[in-house]
Amino acid sequence: MQILENGSVTSPRGFTAAAVAAEIKYTGRTDLAIVYSKVPAQAAAVYTLNRFKAAPLRETEENISNGVAQAIVVNSGIANAGMGAEGMRLAREMSDCAAEALDIAKDDVIVASTGVIGMPLPMDRVKAGVQKAAKALYPDGGHDAAKAIMTTDTVCKEMAVQLRIDGKLVTIGAMAKGSGMIHPNMATMLGFITTDVNIDNKALQAAFKANIDDSFNMVSVDGDTSTTDMVAILANGQAGNTLLTEGSPDFPAFKQALREICIEMAQKIAGDGEGATKLVECTVTGAATKEDARLAAKAIIASSLVKTAIYGNDANWGRIACAAGYSGAQFDPDKVNIFIGDVQVAQNGMGLEFDEAKATETLKQKKVNILVKFNIGTEEATAWGCDLTYDYVSINADYRS
Amino acid sequence: MQILENGSVTSPRGFTAAAVAAEIKYTGRTDLAIVYSKVPAQAAAVYTLNRFKAAPLRETEENISNGVAQAIVVNSGIANAGMGAEGMRLAREMSDCAAEALDIAKDDVIVASTGVIGMPLPMDRVKAGVQKAAKALYPDGGHDAAKAIMTTDTVCKEMAVQLRIDGKLVTIGAMAKGSGMIHPNMATMLGFITTDVNIDNKALQAAFKANIDDSFNMVSVDGDTSTTDMVAILANGQAGNTLLTEGSPDFPAFKQALREICIEMAQKIAGDGEGATKLVECTVTGAATKEDARLAAKAIIASSLVKTAIYGNDANWGRIACAAGYSGAQFDPDKVNIFIGDVQVAQNGMGLEFDEAKATETLKQKKVNILVKFNIGTEEATAWGCDLTYDYVSINADYRS
Question: B353 and chain A: CB distance < 8 Å anywhere?
């Protein structure tokens, strides 16, 4: 597998995109994007588990219940969340407008919004923007789209990878937005993956959902999951490979490539947390079950005490152990070993003498790795997050913007 | 029920206490306390659910498995946690030393420690302190004890209430330590309740555990629960009332008084959070189950986004709704009403126009009340916490002390 330079959601064959400044809420920047496949594509999506599931997610879920979509329309600035039945109406109107402008089936649209909640979408501007974007689609439009969906992101998040499936070149592209911390307006985690692989829907769902569980769903910050989180994938078959099914010899290679791109994107999100200065990665190994490993890794990553310790360059193993201890994971406290980078800081559940200077140096890096070994099984999991800083408080104590 | 002025753990009949400066870790202040009952008492305790259960808790659990105790010995400065088998040995030595110095049964001692983890207790100093305290017990020693157990607390937490049971005056006293946020060294939440009521162990357990669930266990901060949290109760019968059982006509009155004292103490803990400027109380009503109400109330209280909004005097209903949404509680998003103080900020899951100035004024108070109505049932729960401020980051990003 190869990572492409300047990869984006339009790197795979048969995808075009465009972004416009619809002036939905922001001025002086683009805020609406369309990603389009020349042919209908196999589609799958995962949605927030928050009970307040925003309108665009419900609309999308309905649209792609048949497993097919041909376009993504996303706006930033206003999330179309907290709007009740009115919100559903607006999401449908936005979706229908895109279908009409692109001359595709009404239910072949994935619709998403991100931004302030509780405000209505100004549909006249949205529709004007959709119509304009629909006429501006071009094969290198991926980067424009990735920029248009940003809210509190400080960096644009996109990439693409390539691999050979059945002798054919297959490309997977991705764009995402969302910070490691959720913005006051619930900036939302949105991810869109495009690929030209020829695959059946069942295999796509299988590859996609497992990978989401190990990537986007392992970005754990302050425990918050917004009303609008969604990750969707479109596979349009334009690479021309023999149809991939779960039994195909090349299916594992595709699944692995998808996994790597999802993990890369998850790291980009985790590291762009509000006020964050560091990406934090925590791996738990030797657990009895996968769920135990996940619970512990996420609890450690989400712990305010661990996050502040990392901000303060403090090799505080006790806080890491404590977080594992309340995570709900089953383990034997007397067998736990903890490492910060290469420095072992705890053995058999107790502190060790260690090289403080080396540990502090490790903690000052832009990426900090924590390893917790449970030593009672073979399951493992990795979670990503960021440090907790003064800037987080500053950003989030400000008045609603 | 009446709240006593200057109440403490020695307010009930037959209890004495003393505190000494054993110089276990702190200098220039007291750090070890004994609370003693002239006769063996009915005992009950609840312990942390953290898998790293510190040695003193395990020792106490063993000692009072027969439902009887006669003394509490507590030290601050060193938690005797993260010490493995060595820690168990030290906890036992501390417990045995107290039993000997007080001339009581070996297993009639409740032992607790709070402070730095991963350091051994200096047993020579502990034993010298225990022996000195055992000789200094006096009927007004409760306040001294409450001070000796403080670690990062900014205020001493104690109180006592009185009521009539079976025509007799019954007193319940309490002391606690622990801040709304858990200190770098896992300051621990410790609570000790003394009463002279005459009660059987089964009734005591029943009254105690239910009340702990609605008070100390509803203090939710950053989700962290330390390795050393414990709340214990001693009931020595010295009030001379007819033995209370679960069927006694006065049992509900006793249970209610215990409830109120536990809730008061929980609020004191929640409001003394690191860096906290406000106590936050969140009540969820109209839930289908008690568990749903608890989950939602705790998630709201523990949410970094809600906590920073409160710090910033921001009436941000969206963050409150979002926290309820990921809490795991079952509810209908379209029926949720949210109030900040008396100001309604959301109805049927959507924002309302509201008096911003009034809401901001409410948020500037030392105690902020959030009310969330689920409107689908009759169960309710209340949780307590505090705001998230720059000082929290400052305190917790400092190097391990």
Answer: no
ipTM: 0.73
Give the gap in angstroms from C-alpha A119 to the nearest C-alpha of chain B.
Answer: 9
B75 φ, ψ (degrees, to nearest 5): -125, 155
3-state secondary structure A8-49: CCCCCCCEEEEEECCCCCCCCCCCEEEEEEEEEEEEEEEECC
Spatial separation of the C-alpha atoms in residues A340 and A317, rounded to whole Å: 8
pLDDT for A269-309, tens place per residue?
Answer: 888 877 889 999 999 999 999 999 999 999 899 888 888 88
Whether A344 has its CB under 8 Å from any CB of chain B: the answer is no
Q: Look at A393 and B398 and tell me if their CB atoms are within 8 Å.
A: no
Q: What angle do CA B311, B314, B319 make, to 5 degrees?
A: 95
Task: Please identify among residues 3-32 of chain A the ones whose CB lies closer than 8 Å to any CB of chain B.
Answer: none
Q: Which two tokens stand for residue B88?
A: 């168990």
Q: Any idea of the CA torsion for B77, A305, B225, A53, to the nearest 10 degrees?
A: 170
pLDDT tens for B203-240 read 999 999 989 889 988 887 655 666 668 999 999 999 99
Domains of chain A, each with CATH number or no CATH: 2-271 (3.60.70.12), 279-397 (3.10.20.340)
Residue recorded with tokens 């021309």: A240
Size of interface A-B (CB pairs under 8 A): 195
Note whether A377 contacts B: Cβ–Cβ < 8 A. Answer: no
- The pLDDT assigned to A184 comes to 35
Please judge whether B53 and A333 are an interchain contact, meaning their C-beta atoms are less than 8 angstroms apart. yes
φ, ψ for residue B394 (rounded to 5)? -60, -50
Query: Cα–Cα distance between A390 and B3 in angstroms, integer?
Result: 40
Min Cα distance A317 → chain B (Å) is 10
Interface test with A, best of B393, B398, B401 (most A CBs within 10 A): B393
- Local confidence band at A227 (pLDDT 50, 70, 90 cut-offs): low
Cβ contacts of B348 on chain A, cutoff 8 Å: 84
Pairing of strands B168-177, B190-195: antiparallel
Please, are residues A281 and A369 in contact by the beta-carbon 8 Å criterion?
yes
